[in-house]
Amino acid sequence: MVGAVAPPIPAPSPPLQMVYVLTVYNKRDKQHCIQIHVHREIPDGISVPTELQSVDDYPDNQFTFSVKHLAPISLTCLMPPSYLSHHPPYFFLSVQWLDTVKVSTLCHMLESIWAHQSAQEVVFEWVQGFTLSHLGFDGGIIIRMSDSTMAPVDARVVGEILSVEDVVQRLINYDEEQCLETFIRGLHVCAICFIRENTTDTVYIGH
């Protein structure tokens, strides 16, 4: 499975980035471990063309859906005592909607960022590098079987090797969960009487 670049489409509203950080400090070793989860919200949605494995009964294996929320990119960093002065953070990277080869490429991108600004704070720059434009997905994401299934995988990549069908289902499930959560947190105006109601008096229908 691979997330590949889709043909350009009209630009949607800019994606919103939400970053959640958990920091753990080991007093004995004097080391920090940071877990960062980068969530993407695309108000106008992003197109996801999909190529499923074809079978004889269903030769047309392509379909397209859209999501407004992408499952988070998870970055775990361990700060060695020599961080900033000599070494970058040790890190592990997980992206549910990318295959391991593409995530390996992201690992190399993080290394490149450190190489260009060594001895400087780098984690913020790493997180900034997770924008859709830097990932090459401005026009949408294509989910399909990878052409590089035998390519080496970086040891810092964390995650399962999933089928296209599993990735699609995870994307849809996560998007539905986040849309429902957003609905529950909000106030809504009735289209008939124009009265603003909270979610205890309204029903979510997924539109």
Automatic annotation (TrEMBL):
Signal sequence residues: none
Domain RWD: 33-128
SUPFAM superfamilies: UBC-like (SSF54495)
Pfam families (UniProt xref): RWD
Superkingdom: Eukaryota
Protein name per UniProt: RWD domain-containing protein
Species the sequence originates in: Aegilops tauschii subsp. strangulata
